[in-house]
Amino acid sequence: MKFSRKMLSTPDINDKFPETSVITDFRHFGALSNFFGPVTTVDCFEDNSLVKRALSEKSNGGILVVCGKKSKNVALMGDMIATMAHDNGWSGVIINGCVRDVEILNTI
Question: What is the CATH number of domain 34-105?
Fold first, then answer.
């Protein structure tokens, strides 16, 4: 599958898929301001073992989307997992939940 480098903003995505709701309360952490690639998803609640397992695999620029059900009780990613993702070739992670070590995440 080929991917286009054309960037779509959140409003563009919402216009293209009006039947879906768009979550707009994301916060950005990390050195990249945008990224794209094939998407892998994991569904986990207050347990980051599936996140670790997915990001321990080699990737060719993939994006991991994590459904953490907005829990604020457990961080699903911190600096060690983010570093592993970076080292294994992932281009980004989108998490519906909490992260930790944000000062370090901003440098990865």
Answer: 3.50.30.40
